[in-house]
Task: structure prediction
Amino acid sequence: MAFGKFRKAKDGPTELNLIPVMNLFVVLIPFLLAGAAFFKVGVIPTSLPAHDPSQSDVPQTPTTVACNLLLSRERVMLTISSTSFGPDELSAMSREWKVAADEPYPADDVQAYLIELKDLYPKSSTITIQPDGDIPYQRLVGILDKIREKSLGEVDDEGREKYRELFPVTIFSRLIKNTDPVEGGEGGDDFDFEEGGE
Amino acid sequence: MPSRAMQRKKKAPGLMLTSLLDMFTIILIFLIISFDSQDENFKLNPDLTLPESTARSAFKPAVSIAINKGELLMDEKSVVTLSGGEFDERYYVEDQVPELVTILQDRFERLELQAQYEGTTIDEKAVIIVQADRDIEYRTIYLVLRSAAMAGFFKYRLAILKK
Result:
């Protein structure tokens, strides 16, 4: 008699009661869904120019240049500063791109020229951005992406996209329009650079 | 002796829960992973849309400032109201947001004390995370950064949505 039950059990596999597990899942999933983030937040590190009368932000080494990128609705202008070159050489290294009204910035052209500069002066890493006050934030971030790095179109062993670093150190500054009709010359189109942060 | 067909009929039909359980397990694992990888102490302001970027720098906790089209918030508390994403014109003339400077100065002092207590440097702690709506104009963002600089903060991180 005692072995009767044992024999019965051997007859077929017993089914697990999965209903409590299912109940647990049904409770857990809405809870996790409510708390899950379906977006990834990152950051762009930046700073303001620090004003130190005893120091210049112009690089002292011959292999380094500092770039200044002026952004307005009508044009993008890249100027270079370095102690190793004269005004004429620096002027020759400057570039300007015209932008049609409400057209996107020629970010690829700017990036191509920055790659040329990076090839010539590989230790350079700083760029000062001087946008007009009315430039929308997204437009600014769009061109910053092209300035900081270039996608190489390859992936590493862990499946992450490979990038070439261009000018990752970005400093935000501001242009002050010179509205003085005598000093400004042509209707206030000239700009003075602000001296920097506090 | 009942026939086999009769015996089969007597059995109550059972739900096949195994495949459903498999599916739930996969969903649960996915949700637990995404829950775990969420950025600590980061609360995205629901009234703004961050700009999209390819930036890959990792998020680190810092003093949080949010700028949407209606107000400037620090740690989720309203500091100044904006109109259509712009401050009152007097702030642009003054070149600072005095209310924000006052609050940030107070925070900076507390961070200095905290850094002294922990034996770290203030540079590591005095960092601002700016969440700004993608349509906000640069001059508004610059004014906030400049106010932060006046309070002693010189490192900023612009929050973006990774593409």
In short: Strands of chain B lie at 52-53, 63-67, 71-74, 77-81, 127-132, 155-162.
